[in-house]
């Protein structure tokens, strides 16, 4: 990155009081206004190479400050106030260990399926193709696709010893350990 010119640096410094007044008009709080100006100055300095000498530096700086303000405003709308940590405590994530083991078991079971069943399961289950699209890709009737898919799902269920939908996902011990208090 090339060092900004002296005129660029002097121009930015000269605009600080005006930038601060503009920031105050946007947010109404001196400490936030100072933060806005500082952020705008940092962005301007980092983007100094994109500024064309001889153009309106003041307008460029005010645009940067305005964009910083509205970006922070949008970000703030997405943030959740959680001073006491209650919201964060409810957001728990299961460990990945069981998921990795489940995926490994699934991949092994998938490998035990005949190629035509594995192909259909992959096309419809993983790639999201419709029955008609899968039939066209495989060059077989839609009924054949449905039949292969049904047999593939049944075989996977048997190989993985899945008796109920609750058998998929975190087990009871994991759910209890990650439950919020």
Automatic annotation (TrEMBL):
<dbReference type="GO" id="GO:0006352">
    <property type="term" value="P:DNA-templated transcription initiation"/>
</dbReference>
<protein>
    <submittedName>
        <fullName>ECF RNA polymerase sigma factor SigR</fullName>
    </submittedName>
</protein>
<dbReference type="GO" id="GO:0003677">
    <property type="term" value="F:DNA binding"/>
</dbReference>
<dbReference type="GO" id="GO:0016987">
    <property type="term" value="F:sigma factor activity"/>
</dbReference>
<feature type="domain" description="RNA polymerase sigma factor 70 region 4 type 2">
    <location>
        <begin position="106"/>
        <end position="156"/>
    </location>
</feature>
<dbReference type="InterPro" id="IPR007627">
    <property type="entry name" value="RNA_pol_sigma70_r2"/>
</dbReference>
<keyword id="KW-0731">Sigma factor</keyword>
<dbReference type="InterPro" id="IPR013324">
    <property type="entry name" value="RNA_pol_sigma_r3/r4-like"/>
</dbReference>
<dbReference type="InterPro" id="IPR039425">
    <property type="entry name" value="RNA_pol_sigma-70-like"/>
</dbReference>
<dbReference type="InterPro" id="IPR013325">
    <property type="entry name" value="RNA_pol_sigma_r2"/>
</dbReference>
<keyword id="KW-0804">Transcription</keyword>
<dbReference type="Pfam" id="PF08281">
    <property type="entry name" value="Sigma70_r4_2"/>
</dbReference>
<dbReference type="InterPro" id="IPR036388">
    <property type="entry name" value="WH-like_DNA-bd_sf"/>
</dbReference>
<dbReference type="Pfam" id="PF04542">
    <property type="entry name" value="Sigma70_r2"/>
</dbReference>
<dbReference type="InterPro" id="IPR014284">
    <property type="entry name" value="RNA_pol_sigma-70_dom"/>
</dbReference>
<feature type="domain" description="RNA polymerase sigma-70 region 2">
    <location>
        <begin position="16"/>
        <end position="78"/>
    </location>
</feature>
<dbReference type="InterPro" id="IPR013249">
    <property type="entry name" value="RNA_pol_sigma70_r4_t2"/>
</dbReference>
<comment type="similarity">
    <text>Belongs to the sigma-70 factor family. ECF subfamily.</text>
</comment>
<keyword id="KW-0805">Transcription regulation</keyword>
